[in-house]
Amino acid sequence: MRPTLRSHALAALPFAVLASSIAIAQDAATTSTHPPSKKPTTLTPVSVSAATRMPLASDPNFPATQVSVTAAQMNATVNAMDVEDATKYMPSLFIRKRNTGDTQPVLATRDWGVNSSARTLVYVDDIPISALIGNNNTNGAPRWGMVSPEQIDHIDMLYGPYSAAYAGNSMGGVMHIVTRTPDKPEVTIQQTEAIQTYDFYNTKGDYSSSKTSITAGGRSGKFSWFVGATGLNSFSQPLSYLTSANTPAGTLGTIPARNKVGQPANVIGAGGLLHTRQLNLNGKFAYDITPWLQAAYWIGFWSNHGQSRVQTYLTNPQGAPSYGKSSAFASNDYFLSAHHLMQALSLKTDTRSDVDGELVITHYDYIKDNQWSPYGVGNGATFTPNGLLASYGGTNWSTADLKGIWRPQGYGGAHEISGGAHADQYTLANPTYNLSAWPDPSSVTSLYASGRGKTTTEALWIQDAWQIAPDWLATIGGRYEKWRASDGFNFSSKTAVYQPGERATDFSPKATLRWDISPTWRITGSAAKAVRFPTVSELYQLVATGNTFASPNPNLKPERDLSGELAVEHALDDGFVRMSLFQENTRNAMINQTSTLPNYAVPVTFVSNVGAVRNRGIELVADHDNVLIQGLELSGSVTFVDSTILSNDAFASSAGTTSDGKHVPYVPRWRATAVATYRPTPAWAITLAGRYSGRQYSTMDNTDNTENVFGAFDTFVVFDLHADYQINEQLSASFGIDNLNNRQYFLYHPFPQRTYVANLKFKL
């Protein structure tokens, strides 16, 4: 699909902001009689931008490029149903959110795509919500449901693995969602309604979502607290389409179509029409033991119940509905039931003197997580009475982090040395059971299949933020990690396999050098090594091919990543511009691809190591206020990535194709965001925003060249409209339209079409 005029205009907006910023800067330089101010630039409440102030020496975890979005920015610019929406316009980021209440929204960064959940880290405060049990689009997605948009104070995104404080999973970046705690009593009640108009193939309808949120917080002496409850009731568009290479015998109604590689894939129905009911309860409680020592406890409970239904396009010659003997209808008709519990304890000091420390212990537990569906289809539009129940109940992870900070020359001195110890354990429990009566999850008869195992990691790290000179800051550190996988077990078709354990150790050095050329210009260079160890799902997920049962690779090697970035930033009174050049070389990248299994002639798909992958590109980010007229604020970004497979001996193709020299799957060459906000009065904020994603592939040999079909990854341009009105001090309202231009596109799944969103918030 050729880029349209709209996509060119969207991509050009950041360059226009950049040009206006430079012009205004030059004009200010010639007309002002005062030297540039050395105080930090204060961003307005609607900018989505990188920090242009000098990072504080007391925060050694963020030595390189970062961007931030605040609650005020989110309220003014975003139609926020879920917490993922808050990041919608941050540079180079994309969260694959298929529907409101989606349980599988994976974060993609500028150099890794939506199949790389274990290549980024996501935290709520100091609590990891990244599900490092997998590296995929399903059970590997971060547990976003543990926080709601109303609780956010701000979100920080660190690009790249340049801090020793984080594991090698930070190669794509680290996202910190920071919640707020009111200093005085506060109660907020918020109601959000959305309705999507959808029309594709033979599925047409309006799909609504309703969310009610209540938060309360405050402080009483040494005790502070913040609690929240959010209820969601959502209906989604089809999340999949059911296809067949031929017209099922004895049926009518097939829609001729092709799949992503151009082969016949006629559409026979829609699936994944999901009705979701979610409840999120959470609380944060803190006690100031002394003026410099605080203890805190976090708890979050997430409940999800859903039902997915199917719509057949097929009929028999008499006009009665039919499933055409296609088992795909059975797998797309299912029930969901899940209860997850998150807890954390912390002890933290803030002495503002020579030494500080922090201890954080967390635990995340899948108390219950079941999905059950019929085993197959019967005659006409019926299902078999028996079925399958897949469970993640018992899956969990625990983490512990001990960190200390030593300031040899006192608070604000030239050195700030930080270090710490980390330990984690991720446990996967994924049995599938036979059901005698599939709508009844208690009718379990026997074990159908199983996969389980665990991984543990222990790490030590140290880092020194050293102010070499007034304008030079060097941050140098390293991380030593020891990893182990154990207790791997697979069962299927009466065959049990006890998988071998694995061990690995590695050391990852980090370095960042920042030069403040002047009060308004900065250059930052960063280099780092990162090591990502296999997740338990990558190691022990069962591959069944005929009567052959094998692990994808019980000897899977860790992937080793070398990253570098050169960033140039220029701060203005009303904005900033930044250009970043980045490159990342990864050896033994773990990617799901077609390869061979011993004693089986036909290539199959499983996780294996790719010899070498290179990601390199350029990112331009700009932000400017009061452009042309007072109250008009523009921000945007453009990112180009050349993501190339340099060598891959494991790839096998029956068609004789190769993956060497091809583009890495799921990484678009171009991304762009553009946000224009106009404030005609202090009470109003009206935003028009756009997102562009260029060509990307989902196959290693880049043979998926058919667009706008189920399974494809399409180029898209999507515009959103948002208007926020502060009625009075207690009451505010907003209205918006997502996908204003009603772009119909697939990212494997069909994505939402035009959606209307309204919100009313009352604050006591």
UniProtKB/TrEMBL annotation:
Record's subcellular location: Cell outer membrane
A Pfam family assignment: Plug
Signal peptide (from-to): 1-25
Keywords: Cell outer membrane, Ion transport, Membrane, Receptor, Signal, TonB box, Transmembrane, Transmembrane beta strand, Transport
TonB-dependent receptor plug domain span: 64-174
Matches recorded under Gene3D superfamilies: TonB-dependent receptor, beta-barrel domain, TonB-dependent receptor, plug domain
Membrane topology qualifier: Multi-pass membrane protein
Chain ranges of the TonB-dependent receptor-like beta-barrel domain: 281-740
InterPro entries: Beta-barrel_TonB, Beta-barrel_TonB_sf, Plug_dom, Plug_dom_sf, TonB-dep_rcpt-like
Keyword Endoplasmic reticulum: no
Family: Belongs to the TonB-dependent receptor family.
Protein name: TonB-dependent receptor
